[in-house]
Design a protein that fits this description.
Layout: H1 2-23, H2 32-47, H3 52-61, H4 66-83
Helix pairs in contact: 1-2, 2-4
Length: about 80
């Protein structure tokens, strides 16, 4: 199940990151592989340690738990440093 969530995240993440980089005028400084690696990294950090309770809540609301929302920018920074 977590794999499906990560895959769904990846499918939406890469086009969003690509669009953001394009608007910033720096898309040509990254490769698709870098963008995909970044998205996989963030997806793992978000979904790998969800508890059963958090998964059940996520399935109902499609919203991340509060602790993940709070950590989301930290995950993004860590993965940016690692893959870009």
């Amino acid at each position: 199940m977590k794999g499906s969530y990560k895959k769904g995240f990846l499918l939406s993440c890469e086009p969003n990151i690509k669009s953001q980089l394009e608007r910033a005028g720096i898309l040509d400084l990254t490769t698709q592989t870098q963008r995909l690696s970044y998205c996989v990294c963030v997806g793992i950090k978000i979904f790998d340690d969800l508890t059963i309770s958090e998964i059940n809540s996520f399935q109902k609301t499609m919203e991340l738990p509060a602790r993940k929302k709070k950590a989301r920018s930290s995950y993004s920074n860590e993965c940016t440093d690692k893959h870009f």
